[in-house]
Amino acid sequence: MAASYNRVLLMGNLTRNPELRYISGGSAVCEFGIAINRKFVAGGQDREETTFVDIVVWGRSAESCSRFLAKGSSVFIEGRLQLDQWEDQQGGKRSRLRVVAENVQFVGARRDGAGNSDAPAQGGAPAGQTGGGYQPRGNAAPAGPGGYQMRGNTRPQSGANDAPPVPDEAFNVGDDVEDDIPF
Fold first, then answer.
1. With 80 as the cut, is the pLDDT of residue 4 above it?
2. I want to staple 136 with a disulfide (CB 3.0 to 4.6 A). Which of 119, 140, 161, 172 is the partner?
3. What is the Cα–Cα distance from 104 to 18, expressed in whole angstroms?
4. Residue 32 pairs with which residues in a beta bridge?
5. Long-range contacts formed by 136-145: CB under 8 A, 24+ apart
6. Backbone conformation region of residue 44, classed left if phi is above 0, alpha if psi is from -120 to 50, else beta
7. Fold of 8-170
8. Cα-Cα-Cα-Cα dihedral of 118, 121, 68, 81, to 10°?
C-alpha cells in the first residue's frame, strides 16, 4: 500500500465567533467556521463560489484563537482533514469532514481594540503599532516575554521585546584582536 499524506492549507474569514470549551481532561478546544472565496470565469462571465469549512483547534492555540479572533477575522490555517462519524437520535448514520488546525496564523490588520466587534476596523494598525494580525478583545493585551507563544503571524506590540541598548565599550575589543572576516 502506498503512503498517505493528509495536509490542508486554507485561507479565509471566520463566519462566526470562535467557541471555546474545555474537555474533561482540561484541554482547550476551539471551534469556528471559515468561508473561502474562489473567483473564476465560466461561460465568459465572472463567477464566485464560497466554500464553508469547519475548523477545530486544540490546546494553547485554541485559547489564543478564542481570545484574538472574531467573526470576519482573516486566518491562514494549516492542518489535516478529519472525518467524524456518529449516529443521530433516530438511528441514522451521520458524518462530517472538518479540519484539525495545527498552525493558525492571524492575517490582516489589527482591529481597533474596541472589543469583540463583528465589523473589521478601517485603516489597519493604530499609530505606533505593528500590524500583528490579531484582534484583542476588550482590554486584552498580547502576552510579552514569558507569555504564550503561538506559531504564526503574531507580533508583540512595539516596545514589548526591545532589548536594552548595547554600550559602546562592548565593541572595543583591543588592538590584539584580528577583526577581518576571512571571506
1. yes
2. 140
3. 13
4. 55
5. 136/67, 136/68, 136/110, 136/111, 137/67, 137/68, 137/70, 140/67, 140/68, 142/68
6. left
7. OB fold (Dihydrolipoamide Acetyltransferase, E2P) (2.40.50)
8. 70
Q: pLDDT for 103-132, tens place per residue?
A: 999 997 655 443 444 443 333 333 333 334
Tell how strand 74-87 and strand 45-58 pair up.
Answer: unpaired
Q: How far is CA 56 from CA 79, 91, 98, in A?
A: 10, 26, 8
DSSP state of 56: E
Element (H, E) at 61: helix 59-68
Cell for 34?
A: 471559515
* H/E run at residue 65: helix 59-68
Q: Which of 162, 109, 100 is nearest to 136 (CA)?
A: 109
